[in-house]
Specification:
8 strands, signal
Length: 117
Amino acid sequence: MIDMKKSSRSGVLATGTVALATALTMIATGTANASEARSGGNRGWASQHCAAAFDGEGDGHGVYVDVRLVNGVHFSVWDGSGADGHWGPQTCWSVRIAKFKVVEDKGPASDWVHNPS
């Protein structure tokens, strides 16, 4: 005889595990409801609460995402790894992001992206 309580709990646990793994993968790859900004080969992305930068040009200039939160606080999220083909570390806040742009240090910047999704 199958224990329905145990079977049901296992199904819920498996479903929750798959959902968590999917969400973590989307966050790690920057695809979880994120908006993107570009300036040349440089990119930045932001969701409602997180942001990261990507240096796509091997020109010796650093790249960062300029973030403004809805409470007026300003942050810079740097790529930090140069033009190595990888996104820099993601930074998250409990306060929602109002707007962001990608900026090349001593170089051009993208337009502001408002209310990232």
